[in-house]
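Deviations from the work plan: none for this task. Representative record:
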Amino acid sequence: SRAGFTGPENLSRVNLVLVKHYSQTLYTLYIRSVYHNLSKEAEIKRINKELANIRSKFKGDKALDGYSKKKYVCKLLFIFLLGHDIDFGHMEAVNLLSSNKYTEKQIGYLFISVLVNSNSELIRLINNAIKNDLSSRNPTFMCLALHCIANVGSREMAEAFAGEIPRILVAGDTMDSVKQSAALCLLRLYKASPDLVLMGEWTSRVVHLLNDQHMGVVTAAISLITCLSSKNPDEFKTCVSLAVSRLSRIVSSASTDLQDYTYYFVPAPWLSCKLLRLLQCYPPPEDGAVKGRLVECLETILNKAQEPPKSKKVQHSNAKNAILFEAISLIIHYDSEPNLLVRACNQLGQFLQHRETNLRYLALESMCTLASSEFSHEAVKTHIETVINALKTERDVSVRQRAADLLYAMCDRSNAKQIVAEMLSYLETADYSIREEMVLKVAILAEKYAVDYSWYVDTILNLIRIAGDYVSEEVWYRVIQIVINRDDVQGYAAKTVFEALQAPACHENMVKVGGYILGEFGNLIAGDPRSSPLVQFNLLHSKFHLCSVPTRALLLSAYIKFINLFPETKATIQEVLRSDSQIRNSDVELQQRAVEYLKLSSIASTDVLATVLEEMPPFPERESSILAKLKKKKGPGAVSVELEDGKERGELNGGADRGGEAAIAASNSTPSPSSDLLGLRSAAPVGGPAPSAGSLLVDVFSEAGSAPPSAASEDPAPPLFVCKNNGVLFENQLLQIGIKSEYRQNLGRMYLFYGNKTSVQFVSFTTTVSCPGELQSHILKCIPSLTHTKPVEPLVEGGAQVQQVINIECLTDFVDAPLLNIKFRYGGALQNITLKLPVTINKFFQPTEMAAADFFQRWKQLSQPQQEAQKIFKASHGMDTEVLKAKLLGLGTALLENVDPNPENYVCAGVIQTKIQQVGCLLRLEPNAQAQVAPPPPPTHTHTHTHLCAHALDSHTASVCPSLCGSHCITHCTHLHVITRYCIYVKDPHRVGSSKSH
Amino acid sequence: MIKAILIFNNHGKPRLSKFYEHYSEDTEQQIIRETFHLVSKRDENVCNFLEGGMLIGGSENELIYRHYATLYFVFCVDSSESELGILDLIQVFVETLDKCFENVCELDLIFHVDKVHNILAEMVMGGMVLETNMNEIITQVDAQNKMEKSEAGIAGAPARAVSAVKNMNLPEMPRNINIGDISIKVPNLPSFK
């Protein structure tokens, strides 16, 4: 190719010309950027000087000519490109838009498309200029304007032009170049604001652009049509037959027919690719003739791949193969033509050994999708040797990574052992960047296709040996879960870890697995004198001092288990526990374990010891957290093969034969947390410290079966929600509860969203709402109802969110809030959380607007002391009028402006709606900068039926007020004085009368 | 969709950046640096595709690049684009630049920021391909140049003079003069290494 950048002589030639041509500044910048002989400070200094110069030119009295304007704007663009902020020139650029000169207009648009973002205030001005240019009928100006819309793509622009652009696109007299721009401009607006682009009447004319004479128009239109089709396939389905016939004309044409659109002897490669992509939005055509024509095209494309190349240039083969790969994608997408699928697979097989690295890369990538088709899975498998070879010998890490992906995708029961072995051996030399992913893949394949669990154990231990640093917690937790759940492999596992620990240097993860497994199953190999209890203990303890604190803690637990398994080791182990390095360890966790284990081993009887340190019960079956981790790493698409494969799920969970049974057992039994040495049941969030470590020892010594609930009930109804209806009600490490509520009159509806923050499912998830005390007598009725008419799913998947709706009716006034109780099992541990639902009397306020005279008349009417509640409190933070107003509105009352003669005061009015009565309330808030204000009169209680309401209101003014103060609204020297006056009506034709309370 | 088009030189100095999605100015600079870091450490003769950096969307996006002498041309695209198609597009872009600038070199990109943007705008709009036919693109660019010249008037005289010199037909001079061994003194310039 002639395409240049061909070395120093070329550079210097241009140098000589340009030096005369351009100002010193750019030249210096260039020198600096090429030769690095200016320090960063010097560059900044130089640029600031230049910026100041340009600014003065822009602001100067002398009008700049077009050439200078252009020069300075170009300089600004270059300075921006180097990473410096440009904070001026925008207005000058906008002014250039209205120029009649192309040069000035163009440079203005360029500046705007590079430097103006969608939320700029200038958009209105820019829109005006665009509007003028669009209606100018000058194609160059129209294109500039359309480009600008596509570059900025803001909502205001969509609002202004979404109606106009489709008209330009389909108008008969629009120039081709403008049509092209209009198509892509519309696409951009559609992507940004789909609601504003209404295709309706234009649909068919847009689809027919596929038939346009001008290939450029088709090229631009097809992107638009593809996007619209993928969103509304039905409306655009006529594009299928048009696309097929267009494709057919291109594919079957002699390469010279398309003249300018022939690229290195390949007819319209870009457009062909796009047509094939468009067809991938749809299933195979139903019309036999269309389908026949398409199959013919695909066959022609596959045939052409076998023909000798028309040029030796790489561009020729690139263009040809671009079409071929898209055709293969379409064949895979249809997944219905076995003949084509096998041909595609063979073609990719050829590419696997092609000398072009790009083709090998793409072939591996395509084969990954091909491997999931049942027609071609077997055919893909025949290439296993080539792929393994690629994994071993490719120089390029991107290609090796694709090879690893393909091996993972083509793995099944028949070749799992070979593939896992190859991946393991590749791991020894793999690039650091992909090791972690490889480890996860090996772990998943080993588990998924394990027929023989000793192979599985070997594989994972090898994994730890080879790439210990990249073995995450999930992986070694998982091997332990599986060993514990399958008694046929326990003896083998014990033997293997024992052997693995013999190695002079072994990875800490190996020590963890070893410690855990020997602690549980060391007895299974203790018969052999070479692995007698004491030998096992000494082996483990020889690693102890090299390990980190969590591992040491785990080993201590293994030791206490040894005392139970092998009474003969008791003296030795107690000796170790008693040593200063343990019992006086500076780490609290280690010290506590040493002390308590020592005590336990000395005072507990053998029976108690045997109960406390009993073998771990089986783990509840669940989806492998490794898979979840890989999904997170690779995005949802990457592991879809497993998810679609329903039959394999049981095995993933550690043995299909026992899956169901064990799941039931797990949800019924309450395994004692005390035997959970690792905290596996409350599986640790990745990277965090072992969560149950703290409670572990408490559990060990607590009475069997009375383990305290791990989450204490959270008491307070957060004052936050008095003035707010939405937000996060509760959050801990496991669970987040979001709330949205709405109230109308005396009715309310509350949506609760329970989000599982972990990657593990919650089992037996139940929620109950109760109304304590007086609420129970139907003062407040809460009927939990569920959106999908079924009760809350007892299972909440990891990362999932479930929704619950609670309907609330306020019968009469109330004080206490209803309680929400949530129970579930996380791992094995029961979680029990009780919360107050933020239902307060003020939620049933209906705002009332009234004029000043009206307000004060009513205010005076409610003059009896029983009808008034006063509260004075000190402000703790600065006062912000707006915040204060928002709070008062949040309370539910109407905020009456210009009512109180004192502008400092706030007055509000509202009616509390309950089923049997209404309570009218007038509220006045008097911020008082002078310190002392009289305290409120002491409340006097009466026992009328209205007492409750008054009490409620009082308690609520009380609860509102702290929330007012507590939420940073009032200055430190200000006192707030809140007076509420109210009257109560029983909902009855007759007004029973206003009444009093205190 | 094309998310971004970046051109930088062998030292990582940006020569053109065009983002088709909104990022803050800081993020844009970081993306350029990250991309340079990813691309520049790769050997010659490896494949032209790699997963995108974290800042621009990680493995959902792909970087497709070509290295020409002193410059890297990098297109960051999502999965809806054909890799080889984009590779062709880069080639079309470079060939077009080469025709418009007559043996394009890095300096042309610096001193003609506006032209490079114009040429690119004739090919790609809002992240989608507008035109792939080089002749069509050049026709448009030429038309713009003509308009520019006709408008330039007196103010454009120096530029016209220079281009006249540049285009002067001097048959006795070879097209590429090798001046490596001639030391040229330009008195009014700071010396450079």
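Residues 83-101 of chain B form the longest helix (19 residues).
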